[in-house]
Amino acid sequence: MLRRRWIQLGLVAITWIALGQVVLFDFVSYDDPWYVTGNPHVKSGLQLEQITWALTTDLTGNWAPLTWWSLMLDAEIFGIDARGFHLTNLILHTFNALLLYAALRALTKQDGPSAFAAALFAVHPLNVEAVAWVSERKELLAACFGLMAIWTYARFVTTRRVRWYVLTCLAFVCSLSSKQMWVTLPCVLLLLDFWPLGRLQGAPADAAPSEDPPSNGGEAEQTSTNGNGAAERATVWRLVGEKIPLFLLTVLFCVAIFAFQRGQGSVQSLAQLSLEARLVNAVTVYAIYIRKMFWPMDLAFFYPHPGATISHWHAALAGAILLAISAGVILLRRRGPFLIVGWLWYLGTLVPVIGLIQVGRQQMADRYTYFPLIGLFIALTWGTCAVVPQHRFRRIILAALGACVLLPAMVLTQRQASHWSESTRLFSHALEVTEDNAFAHTNLGGALQKEGRLTESIAQHEAAIEIDPTEAMYHYNLAFTLVSLERFDEAIERFQKAVEFLPESPLPYFQLGSLYYRRGDATAAAGYLRQALERDPEFAEAHHRLGRLLQRQGDAERAQYHLGQAMQLRPDLFPNERDASP
Fold first, then answer.
1. From CA 337, how far away is CA 107, in angstroms rounded?
2. Which residues, 6+ apart, have CB-to-CB distance to 466 below 8 Å?
3. Which of the listed residues 361, 377, 450, 571 has the most CB atoms within 10 Å of its CB?
4. DSSP for 245-309?
5. CA 62 to CA 73: how far, in whole Å?
6. Which residues lie closer than 8 Å to 133 by C-beta, 6 or more apart?
7. Average pLDDT per run of 10 along the chain, which is 582 residues long?
8. Phi-psi region for residue 80, left (φ > 0), alpha (ψ -120 to 50) or beta?
């Protein structure tokens, strides 16, 4: 017990040494305005109305009430102070490392390998994005409850008590209600049935050799695989049937999230990105993540999707590597069952975010590896323990190898985390380590505009347009900066380009209406504002602007209607008024 306490303290210490600086960071202008700084529901704190809103909103293309409630709780406690939100993220990540250690120990009965795998998870540079970015609270919460589900499942297998299975289901629901990244958890549990639990017929019962021999008091089903109790092993179908409630939850949440994201327009069609390009990219990205696990350099907040230009030769090489690894772990499945479990964990848990269903413009994302890399950490850790022979210096050798891995990882994690300290630094770093990153250019342009560096901002937006001239967002962002310089004619031209490339979006129409309103052309302004409302009848700012315009024109009845709608949707638009009257 004392040894476990020291391991837990060690995990906390290395996590905070590597990532403690994040509590001093600011919000970034990438998604944080949607989730916190510009979200009136979150800023209001834990109010009944906002709690209800979180249950029904699909604002970000996801259904994640627990994530919203968590952010609201932070706002209630800390106000809109970035340090408080970052502190919560760091605490959650630390807790996740401790949970991973507890879950692996419950599964394998081995302290040393469980501790090292958890330590690697705690300080690996690829996990920086999930911790240092406030908007990724959803990833941390989903992992927290997902790891709880694994731990309670291990308890269920050990005790065969139904309450632990019920807790597994509840933890799984909570994970999916934070983010749907863990939809593959039932399959992961089946892998764990093979190793280390030894519940599948013919599965190895023993964990890999380590400095900690497996406990003799392990699970009943695990010990039964030693020969005498072979008849007690559950069949594959029985174990699948045992997880039917979990699979049903997976199907339910998968259907729901696809509907949400498709409704938001986030899911790209095959006309936008062909099936061939998706498959080629998926194979390539599987290999890239492995390379970044071993060599975590050139990490960025956004990696632009190469589309049809992706190299088929790179994909062929990546495919050959993946096939070779797969063949190796299959051949070694008896001597090293942890290898095939860790490898299939990695391959399977990446499926939802590998790009076969393309959501957004990114090729890949560091945050997507937060769950899948656990599988590779398991394979690497137990594989290393298996190849180091038994002798009196074994513990020293394993400790030295662990230090040689963890210390450089902590240094790289500190360096990578520093790039998340503020928006300009984050986006500039992405431009340094990636090519043709239009999204980073336009985000840097937005950050520079907030700093008042308007000329530099325009240059960044123009660079984005040069890379991708048909993206409406880049024209919109450039127009927004031109307005700040009162270059209205150029701004109108860019907003009209945005309308041309994305006619279903209400935002360019609203901005055009606002510009013409500002220039005194009431007729044109009203026309554009009405078009914005046609596309989004709940666009509060458009109702407010149109209501004020109609007030000036003396159309009191319609003005009152639009101002009333604005008041109902966004009361904060009327900070000094008790109603919508002028």
1. 14
2. none
3. 377
4. HHHHHHHHHHHHHHHHHHHTT-BPPTTTS-HHHHHHHHHHHHHHHHHHHHS--S--S-EE--GGG
5. 19
6. 28, 30, 31, 32, 89, 301, 367, 420
7. 92 98 97 94 94 87 92 97 98 98 97 97 98 97 98 96 97 96 97 93 52 39 42 71 96 83 66 88 97 96 92 95 98 95 98 86 95 98 93 90 97 98 97 96 96 96 96 95 93 95 93 91 93 93 92 89 89 63 36
8. beta
d(CA 97, CA 207): 21
Q: List, in sequence order, every residue forming a beta bridge with 267; answer none if it has no partner.
A: 359
Question: How are beta strands 303-304 and 362-364 bridged, if at all?
Answer: antiparallel
The residue type at 309: T
Element (H, E) at 139: helix 137-159
User: Tokens at residue 98, please?
Assistant: 């401790």
Which residue reads 């049937």 in tokens? 241
The closest alpha carbon to 406, from 106, 2, 97, belongs to 97
Stated as kind and residue range, the H or E segment containing 463 is helix 454-467
What count of residues does the chain have?
582
Residue where the block lists tokens 């393309």: 358
Picking from 364, 334, 336, the residue whose alpha carbon sits closest to that of residue 352 is 364
- Note if the pTM is more than 0.85: yes
> How many Cβ atoms are within 10 Å of 425's Cβ, its own excluded?
15
Please name each of the domains of the chain with its CATH number.
2-418 (no CATH), 436-498 (1.25.40.10), 504-582 (1.25.40.10)
Distances (CA, A) of 391 to 111, 330, 369: 19, 29, 36
Q: Specify the long-range contacts of residues 166-172, CB closer than 8 Å, at least 24 apart.
A: 168/246, 169/245, 169/246, 169/249, 171/145, 171/146, 172/145, 172/146, 172/246, 172/249
